[in-house]
Amino acid sequence: SLLGKLRRKGRHRPPGPKPLPFIGNAHQIPSKHEWIKFKEWGDMYGDLAKVEIPGDTLYLVNKREVVNELFEVRSAIYCSRPNLVMAGLSGWKNSIPTLGYGPRLRKSRMLLKKAMGPAAIRSYYPYINRDVPFFLQNLLRTPERFTEHFTRGAARIALKIAYGYEGVTEDEQIIQNGTRAMQVFSATVAPGAWAVDTFPLLRYLPSWFPFASFQKFAERGKKITDEARNVPFYEVKKRVESGTADGSFTSMMLQTEKSDPETENIITWAAFGIFTGQFDTTTAALSWFTIAMAKYPDVQKKAQAEIDRVVGKARLPEVADRESLPYVWAVMQEVFRWHPTITMSPRTAIQDDEYHGYFIPAETTIIANFWAILHDESVYHDADKFIPERFCDEGAPDSLSVAFGFGRRICPGILIAHPHVFVTIASILATFDISKARDDAGNVIEPGEDATSGAINFPKPFKVSITPRSSEAVELIRKSVEHSKTLPDRLEIFSM
Ligand code: HEM
Asked: Which residue has the least CA distance to atom 16 on ligand 1?
C-alpha cells in the first residue's frame, strides 16, 4: 500500500489534531498560554504531536526524555531556529537567540563564553555580593516598586559585565531602551505571534506602542532595538579609543578581536545578549518568587529559619552560601519549575532525522514545551502547587536542567543566572517578610497566577506587601551598603 511504502521510507509522520484546509490547526491554537494546549495535545497524541500552521509544520515535544534525546543527545541536528520573520523585520535578525545554526552563531557563543564561562563567572561573585545591599536598600525605600528594583538589580550586573556600566552614558536610559527592545523581541517571537501568522502579533503590543500597521511596527521596533544595542556599544568604543574605558566584555572584545565590521557587529550582539538576556528573565523569575512567598507563608518561614540558622543575622547571605542553604536552593528550583521563565523553545532540524519510526524532515520546527515537562504530574505531584520539599526531600528531578534549555542552544547565561537569582532570593528572605497586600477596606488581595503572553513568562502586575523583618534587618542593610561602598567595583577579569 501507499502507506506501507511511505513507512518503509521512514516517512511516517506523527499524529496530531485534525487540520483544516489552508489554515491547518491555526484556529485551535489559543491566543495565550499556548503551552497548556500544547501539553494537552502531547497527552493525547504522544511523544511527538504534529501541528499544521500556514507555511509550517510544528512537532510538539512535551516529555523530558524526548527533549533530552533530541536537543541534548542529538544536539548537532536540532541546533537551529525557525525563521522568525517579524522578529527579523523588527531589528532582531542577527540576535543570538534567533540566529540559524552556522559560523556566526558559533562565533557569537564562543565570544560569550569568555564572559559567561565558569572562570569568568566565579570572578564576578564578589561584585554580585557587593551589589546586593544596594538592591535591598532600594527595596526598603520603595517596596511597592519591587519589580523595578528586580530589573535594576539584574541590569546593573549585566551592564557592568557587558559595557563596564559606571561612567558609561546614562544607565536609566540604557535600561529603558533595553526594556523596550525586549518588549519588541518578546512580542515578535511569542509563539502565538509566529506560530499562527503575523496578525496575532497585535495582541502582544505593549501599551506604550501606538496602534500601527506591521510595517510601522517593524520600522519602529527596529529603531528601538538598534538604538538600545548601539548606544552603549559605541560609547564604550569611543572610550576604548580615548583610553578611558572601564574594563568590560565589550572593551576586551574590541581590544582582542579583529576590527572588521562583521566582527564588530557580532560583538554588539553578544554584549546586547548579555544585557538583554539577564534583566527581563531575572525580573520574571523574582516576580514569581514574590508571589510564591505571599501565597505560601510556611515555605517562607522555613526558608528564613534556614538562613537564620546557617548565616545568622550579623551578615547577609552570599553566593558561597549556596551549598549550606539546601532549602533556599529548593525554593529557587521550585520557582523555575512552578512558572518557568521561558515556557517553550523552538528549534529546527538541520538535516532529516527519525525518532521512534517518525520521520522528521530537515527544517521541521520542534517546540520543546519546558512548562509541560515541569508540570508532568507523574514526575511532579500537585504540579500547580509550590512545594520546594519535592526537590530537597523527595528527590524530584532538577528543574534548572530544563528551565535553561538544552544542548548547543542552552542558555549561555545559566552560570550567572543561578548564583545571582539565588543570592537575591536568599537576601530578600534574610531581611524582608513578603505577605499578601490589603486594599483600602482592609481586605486581603489574593495575588493571581495569571501570566502575560509573550516570549518571557511574566506574571500580570500584582500587589504584595514587603516589609523589613526587624529593625536589626534594617540596620544590617544599612551597614552592608556602607561596607559595599568601600569595596572595589571593577571586574578584574576585564582589566588589561
Ligand atoms: C533567569 C534567568 C534566565 C533564564 C530562565 C534563561 C532561559 C533561557 C532559555 C530557556 C533559553 C533557550 C534555550 C534553548 O533553546 O535550549 C535561553 C537562551 C538564551 N539566553 Fe537565557 N536565561 C536566563 C538568563 C540569561 C542571562 C543572564 C543571559 C546572559 C548572557 C542569557 C542569554 C541568553 C541568550 C543569548 C540565549 C540564546 C542562546 C542561543 O539561542 O544560542 N540568558 N535562555
From this structure: 405
Average pLDDT over residues 102-111: 97
For residue 318, the domain's CATH number is 1.10.630.10
Residue 477 identity (one-letter amino acid)? I
Residue whose CA lies nearest to ligand 1 atom number 14:
405
Place of cell 552614558: 169
Instruction: Note whether ipTM > 0.90 here.
Output: yes
Q: Which of 72, 334, 411, 457 to mutate to test the pocket of ligand 1 (most atoms within 8 A of CB)?
A: 411
In 3D, which of 223, 267, 232 has the Cα closest to residue 159? 232
| Contact residues for 59 (Cβ-Cβ < 8 A; gap 6+) | 14, 48, 49, 50, 51, 360, 364, 365, 366, 367
Q: Is residue 249 classed as helix, strand or coil in its secondary structure? A: helix
- CB–CB of 267/275 below 8 Å? no
For residue 299, give the amino acid letter. Answer: V
Ligand 1 within 6 A of CB of 155: no
What element of type H or E holds 360? strand 358-360
Residue 434 has φ and ψ, to the nearest 5°, of -110, 130
Domain that holds residue 340: 2-494
Structure-derived torsion over alpha carbons of residues 268, 270, 272, 274, reported in degrees to the nearest 10: -150
pTM of the model: 0.93
CA of 58 to the centre of ligand 1 (A): 22
Cβ atoms of 335 and 426 closer than 8 Å:
no
DSSP 126-192: HHHHHHHHHHHHHHHH-GGGHHHHHHHHHHHHHHHHHH--TTSS-HHHHHHHHHHHHHHHHHHHSHH
How many separate domains does the chain show? 1
Output the residue whose Cα is nearest ligand 1's atom 19.
Answer: 411
Taking the C-alpha atoms of residue 295 and residue 291, their distance in angstroms, rounded to an integer, is 6
First to last CA, the chain: 70
Query: What does the pLDDT average to over 425-436?
Result: 98
Tell me how many degrees the CA angle 85-86-87 measures, rounded to the nearest 5: 95
pLDDT score for 198:
43
